[in-house]
Amino acid sequence: MPDTAPAALILFQRDDCHLCDLALEVLAQARAPEFDSVFIDEDEALEALYGLRVPVLRDEARGRELDWPFDAARLSAWLVGG
Description:
Number of strands: 4
Helix content: 25-40%
């Protein structure tokens, strides 16, 4: 039976966002585990939380967030709890 649980990581981003594109590249470089992308455009609640901060990576399981800017080394350390 396939796993239908949502990914523990969520990348909050915008459409047409250069920094968000860079964050996606860093996630690939760091070989980050599977994550969901959530676009905050046109969502007032998410816009209020993340509007000036995107891209933001959220670890749902641990209830913590990593704000941009981050590089592959910082992301890897954050993923293991650093």
